[in-house]
């Protein structure tokens, strides 16, 4: 009799959890979804620093004072950090607007390029004066800096454009706060979710440098974020992500499977809660690492106060935007060709 040498099939606990939260009939229970501030100590640890070095760049980039930030980690997932909305309302407006008005412009790459090439997607959405909803909903992602190749999963020097200076500056402030003094933002994927959107289980492993953290900034409607282990047999944890929240995948969590099975209506609209008196910071004496024209940020911030904001507000009230920023190269490496 021939011996059965087949290996046992590994149970896909990740997919089981993903399907549970994705389901609409029946709707999933949210009682086990982790919300950082309301969870017990055996799930979440508050690791907010007692003392921090102030960064004058923060306010101009739409961030609250670093001393106000709240940082958590999940006991079950070392290396996963969660920062509870360190953005001001005006800051949220600034980054929402950037993701819609600026980042989908050429030479950046868009998912709709295979169908039609648009120099300025956002302007095209309003070409006839009215919002072209169908075109709006077609945009699912745009890539910045080193463009991620969805077929080969490989970055190349020939498939690259200039990384936005303001996003590089924002990432640098976050990196310095977390102690990653050598982090350089070199690639980003901006994902655009609608209320029925999902993101399947995957790992981010295309970068040459897999030790550098991955920064994930979210704006707009809320989402359930799943984080598991190095393989799909590990049952994932579900974390509620709201507008302005930052997730950092570092160390052990950097190569873990993660996914977004469901978008949820936000319980509030933090981008609307503007201070009665808005005083713009003076940028003249701030030492910026990347930004050469800080006045452009000041102008854009002021525009977000007036009625130019309403088109972006209409978009975000039924969508979620997520910016994923990563370092591609190793320290002291200036090109992928240097490997």
Task: Describe the overall structure.
With 339 residues, this protein is of the alpha+beta class. It has a single domain, classed as Jelly Rolls (Sandwich), CATH 2.60.120.590. It has 8 helices and 13 strands. The strands form 2 sheets. The protein has a 9-stranded antiparallel β-sheet, with helices on one face. The protein is globular, with a radius of gyration of 20 Å. The N and C termini lie far apart (52 Å).
Reconstruct the topology from this structure.
Blueprint: H1 13-22, E1 44-46, H2 57-60, E2 71-74, E3 77-83, H3 89-102, E4 109-110, H4 121-125, H5 133-138, E5 141-145, H6 165-178, E6 187-194, E7 199-202, E8 214-220, E9 222-227, E10 237-241, E11 246-249, E12 258-264, H7 294-303, H8 310-316, E13 319-326
Antiparallel strand pairs: 1-2, 2-3, 3-11, 4-5, 5-6, 6-13, 7-12, 8-11, 8-13, 9-10, 9-12
């Amino acid at each position: 009799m021939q011996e059965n040498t087949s290996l046992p099939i590994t149970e896909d606990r990740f997919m089981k959890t993903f399907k549970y939260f994705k389901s609409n009939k029946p709707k999933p229970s949210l009682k086990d979804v982790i919300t950082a501030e309301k969870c017990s100590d055996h799930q979440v640890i508050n690791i907010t620093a007692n003392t921090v070095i102030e960064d004058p760049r923060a306010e101009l980039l739409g961030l609250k004072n670093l001393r106000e930030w709240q940082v958590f980690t999940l006991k079950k997932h070392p290396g996963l950090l969660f920062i509870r909305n360190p953005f001001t309302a005006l800051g949220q407006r600034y980054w929402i607007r950037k993701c819609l008005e600026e980042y989908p412009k050429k030479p950046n790459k868009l998912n709709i390029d295979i169908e039609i090439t648009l120099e300025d997607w956002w302007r095209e959405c309003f070409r006839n004066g009215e919002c072209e909803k169908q075109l709006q909903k077609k945009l699912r992602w745009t890539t910045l800096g080193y463009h991620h190749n969805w077929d080969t999963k490989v970055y190349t020097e020939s498939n690259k454009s200039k990384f936005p200076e303001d996003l590089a500056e924002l990432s640098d402030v976050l990196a310095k706060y977390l102690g990653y003094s050598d982090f350089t933002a070199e690639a980003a994927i901006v994902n655009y979710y609608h209320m029925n959107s999902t993101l399947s289980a995957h790992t981010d492993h295309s970068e040459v440098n897999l030790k550098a953290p991955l920064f994930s900034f979210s704006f707009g409607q809320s989402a359930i974020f799943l984080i598991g282990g190095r393989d799909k047999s590990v049952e994932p944890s579900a974390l509620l992500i709201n507008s302005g929240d930052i997730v950092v995948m570092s160390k052990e969590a950097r190569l873990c499977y993660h996914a977004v099975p469901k978008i949820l209506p936000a319980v509030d609209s933090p981008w609307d809660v503007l201070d009665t008196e808005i005083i713009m910071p003076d940028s003249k004496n701030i030492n910026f690492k990347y930004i050469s024209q800080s006045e452009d940020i000041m102008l854009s911030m002021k525009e977000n106060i007036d009625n130019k904001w309403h088109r972006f507000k209409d978009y975000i009230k039924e969508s979620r935007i997520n910016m994923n920023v990563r370092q591609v190269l190793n320290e002291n490496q200036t090109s992928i060709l240097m490997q």
